[in-house]
Each structure stands twice: as structure tokens, then as C-alpha cells.
């Protein structure tokens, strides 16, 4: 009888331990399931936030480009037309009135100011929406940009391009043009450089862009905080590209890669 009672006690103890073990195992499994579900939710939330930021950035850049086109058109059509009309009025006045020596000089100065105004309107309008980019593509647009810089700043710019007729993509070309504008502006303003080298190559379904100058260089903190460089990063990422910066004691460089569908 005593033996049977001992067996029952061991049985209940074993059963109780087994139940506790199973309950503990269930709690552990539920904990890991919850942790995995929480982790997946966090990953999904971050992906949703990143996707929202990408859409927001693309929308902002598209609105900026749209506004540039509008302002460039208004400048060319309205302000340019006003300067042209003013120039014709000055010529009519000159023909209808006998000019004295003093008024001749005034008319001459007025004509020069009108011509200068027309040239300024064309230059500003061109910088906003370069005709070369829409008519002849990115290589011609960057060549024209380099020509303008070499003509106005003490900076030598070498530009080399290959194979771009095989990689036509308007959004990437516009991004590369704006990036080149930003980089050259940074070099002129901050780098104290004498030479810039730009290479643009399209081959095997990808576009490679390399820019470097021989200036004083950038530190990594400037790269992180710089609004212009932040815009460059946004333009690259919104077109599915990637980039890397090269900084040293002397010179600054950036390499950009875009995959393209041919």
C-alpha cells in the first residue's frame, strides 16, 4: 500500500514538472514569436518611412524643376520681351530727335544697359533650363557648362564622355546636369582649385560619373552637413543610383553609378 502511494506521489510530481516545463516552453516560444513579430513590424515601419521620404524627396525635386521651367519661361517671354521693346523705343527716340552730344552718350549707355539686361535674362533662363540638355543631351549640356565656367572663372575643366547615345534617360541626365552644376559651384566657392576633371561613361547597361578637383578638399563633417551635397545624394538615390565621396588633404572627388535599362 505504501509502495503504491509512493508511486502516486512520484507520478504527480513528474506530471506537475512536465506541465510546468511545457508552460515554460510555451511562454518562451510566445516570447520569441512576439519578438519576431515586433521586429518585423519595426522593419516594415522603417521601410514605409523610407519609402515615404523617397516619394517626398522626388515630389519636392519635381516641383523645383517645374518651378524652374516656369520662371525660366517667364523670364524669357516677359522680361526678355520688355528689354527688347525698350531697346526698340530707344532706337526710335534716337531717330526722331536730334541728339546733342550729351544725349548721344546717354542713349549709348541706355543701349548698353538694355543689351546687358537681355544677356542677363538669357543667362539666368539658360542656367535654369539649359537648351543643350533638351536638344542635344547631357554631354552637350555639360560641355556648355564647362565652357561657361572656363570663360568666367580661373578654373580649367576637362570633360570626357563616351557611349551616351546608348543610355538615353531624361531623368538621370537632368540629375547629372544639376549635380555637375552643384559640384562646380562648390569647387569655385570653396575649393580654391585650379583644375577639374569630369568623366561620364555609359557601358554595359550602366552610367558612371566621376568628378574630382585639385582643391583644398572637404572633411567628412562638411559632407554630412552640406545641403548641396545632401541634394546630390537625393538626386542619385531617387534615380536608383549610388555614390561615394573621395576626400583627402588635397582635392575632392565623387563617383556615381546609375543602372539603366537599354
Describe this structure in words.
The chain has 262 residues and is an alpha+beta fold. The protein folds into two domains: 1-126, no CATH class; 137-259, Histidine kinase-like ATPase, C-terminal domain (Heat Shock Protein 90, 2-Layer Sandwich), CATH 3.30.565.10. 70% of the residues lie in helices and 15% in strands. The protein contains seven helices and five strands, in the order H-H-H-H-E-H-E-E-H-H-E-E. It has helices spanning 2-96, 101-128, 131-136, 138-152, 170-191, 220-225, 227-238; strands at residues 156-162, 195-203, 206-213, 242-247, 252-259. It has a five-stranded mixed sheet, covered by helices on one side. A hairpin with a 4-residue loop joins strand 4 (242-247) and strand 5. Helix 1 (2-96) runs antiparallel to helix 2 and helix 5 (170-191) packs antiparallel against helix 7 (227-238). It is elongated and about 140 Å long. It starts with a helix and ends with a strand. The mean pLDDT is 83. Keywords: ATP-binding, Kinase, Membrane, Nucleotide-binding, Phosphoprotein, Transferase, Transmembrane, Transmembrane helix, Two-component regulatory system. The chain crosses the membrane at residues 12-34. One of its GO terms (molecular function) is ATP binding. This is histidine kinase. Its EC number is 2.7.13.3.
Order of helices and strands: HHHHEHEEHHEE
Task: Please tell me how large the radius of gyration is.
Answer: 33 Å
How many strands in all? 5
What structural class results from the helix and strand content? alpha+beta
Count up the helices. Answer: 7
Which strand order spans the largest sheet, edge to edge or round the barrel? 1-2-3-5-4
Helix content bin: over 70%
Total domain modules: 2
List unreliable stretches of 5+ residues.
Answer: none
